Amino acid sequence: MSTDNNNRDDKQSGREDRDQVFSKPLSEVKAFEFNETVASVFQDMISRSVPGYDLLLRMIGLYADLFVQANSRVYDLGCSLGEASLLIADQSANIDCDIIAIDNSPAMIDKCRLHPLGTHNIDWRCEDIRLIDIHDASMVVLNLTLQFLPPIERGPLLQKIFDGLKPGGILVLSEKVVFHDNHENERMAELYKGFKKTMGYSDLEISQKRNALEHVLIPDNQQQHEQRLQNVGFAEVYQCFRGFNFVSYLAIKSGPIKSDSIESATIKT
Ligand code: GEK
User: Fold this and answer.
1) Per DSSP, which regions of 91-164 are E strands?
2) Which of 5, 126, 136, 252 has its CA 20 to 30 A from that of 40?
3) pLDDT tens readout for residues 193-231
4) Please, what is the Cα angle at 231 between 227 and 236, to 5 degrees?
């Protein structure tokens, strides 16, 4: 599928939110920012850039059903347009819990605040996740966010999350990763580029975005993630998803399992 065809289809269908941020040659590729331009096309950008993004969201909905506890808090850290929070709110509609969705991009949070009021009880906050307090949490989501923090600040944030979780609480951590093995690393980069082309991105878009993200998104490898999660205290760490160079972990703080557990799991569609 060529990009030209996609652009034509979009114009014909009247869709104006297609990601074309890097489609024209740029004289200077600036560092990537979550600004208004990006926020206006973010839904399309992330679903065409992250293999399995929709599945990751559905998994977060499932975890909410299984792990969100009554009288607890749920934190969605780096919530962007709030897709994960909206799913969690749907899944935990019958549970007395507070959902706190945080992003430090004003453009993202402004758009979150446009979600219909009254249908979801979500506190949208424009804050830096490194500066917030976390307490009484039964679920914390870091869906593709940790990779944007300076590496040295990742351990302290995970420690704060672990300390703020109730027994039996969970962290969902999804990230782009690199691989220890050079050959695997190159192979996955090649496959990921192929994936982006099948999603309608041109070679120019792929290379300009890669340059823009160069010092902004700094991926760790799986060993670093697993070690860090164990170091802060998570007794159970499971890699529940991998799509090329994207992985998602479910990390559980020891404690009792919610009484109405796996057998009753239902996902609203
Ligand atoms: C989703 N989780 O759709 N404080 C707060 N927010 C931050 C910080 C910070 N220090 N650093 C980055 N962000 C979402 C997708 S996107 C992933 C997450 C991506 C925010 C940033 O503004 C952006 O909205 C988000 O983290 C990362 O499930 O674009 O690949």
Assistant:
1) 97-103, 122-126, 137-143
2) 5
3) 999 999 999 999 999 999 999 999 999 999 999 999 999
4) 75
Scan for tokens 């050079």, then name that residue: 182
Atom 21 in ligand 1: which residue has the minimum CA distance?
A: 78
- Residue 260 DSSP one-character state: S
- Between strands 97-103 and 72-77, the pairing is parallel
- CB of 40 within 6 A of ligand 1: the answer is no
Choose among 170, 194, 35: nearest CA to 106: 35
Cα of 80 vs its chain's centroid, Å: 8
**Residue-range domains of the chain with CATH:** 54-177+220-254 (3.40.50.150)
Q: Is the CB of residue 19 below 6 angstroms from any atom belonging to ligand 1?
A: no
pTM: 0.91
